[in-house]
Write a structure and sequence with these properties.
The chain has two helices and two strands. It has 52 residues and is of the alpha+beta class. The mean pLDDT is 85. Pfam families: DUF2256 (PF10013).
């Protein structure tokens, strides 16, 4: 498989694009965050949204 043709998404926490990984093969539709670090920091993102 050519890596340039993999699907990608934008992480809502760090705003960086991340590509499909084999470990996400069965659950790609539900993947929201690029890493465990961003998934852990999602609460700070929610606090920033509620401040506005």
């Amino acid at each position: 498989m050519n890596k340039t043709h993999l699907p990608s998404k934008i992480c809502p926490v760090c705003q960086r694009p991340f590509s499909w990984r084999k470990k996400w093969q069965k659950d790609w539709e539900n993947v929201k965050y690029c890493s465990k670090r961003c998934a852990g920091n999602r609460t700070t993102l929610d606090k920033k949204k509620s401040a506005f």
